[in-house]
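Incident log, structure service

09:12 report received: a user says their structure output differs between two submissions of the same chain.
09:20 pulled the input from the user's history:
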Amino acid sequence: MNRSLPEGLDQRFLQFIGVTEETERDAHVFYLKLFRPGQEVLDLGCGAGYFVKMLREQNIEARGIDLDPLATAQAQAQGLPVSQGEAMAYLQTLPDNSLDAIFSAHLVEHLEVDAVFHLIREAYRVLKPGGFLLLTTPNVRALVSHLEMFWLHFDHKRFYHPRLLKFFMSECNFGQITYGENHPGPRDDPASTDVNSDSTGGLSWNAIIPQPQRSVMLPWWWFKKWLAQLIVIPYLDAIIPAPFVGHAFEVYVIGYKGTGDG
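09:34 re-ran on a clean worker, output below:
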């Protein structure tokens, strides 16, 4: 019996839970300031190419790769340079020192540990000296990740703490490694903050805990938002800031390839 999931299921699921180009723009505009016009950028696990489109609007030479054929077809229908395929296999086809940056949003939690480590190592090979790798993933320190978003997706394998991703990057020779949270609200520089700094970025609550259609469910929705902001698990050392600002659903890790490396 063929037990494989239908093609395009991932993209149809994202549409089902209300992920749109607008919600993705709100979530990832935080990272645009890291990129510069003329840079060659690869988006690993790019979905329907929303961030590729944002980068290209800034005159950045961005392209993407995604495994989901429905998502890549939607991107290609907009004229975006997005290919269908597996991220690691695609990276292995690229020459050394050929990209200025690699961006990957919410891919690593779909992969086992060995695959994540080797993806980071391969990204280092492909990046030019001075280039950077930027990974985002659900925040293991946020209650909303545990109660809602992480277990909502059918293909999530495991959480990756940002310090673990930082360790993997350091093992693969990346330097200047920073990590932080992408909060709703005003935005700080993602390259200069860390996960304990309460940095802010752009992820809307509707993208995290979708507002219910029925008004009778609104009190429960408000309660979940309040609870998610109030409680952070499983780290007691994070309880002091939690009642005031909470922890964001998304964390990021950025590592740079040294200018003397090749």
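09:41 both user submissions now match this output. Likely a transient worker issue. Closing.
09:42 reviewer note: The first helix runs from residue 9 to 16. The chain has one domain: 9-256.
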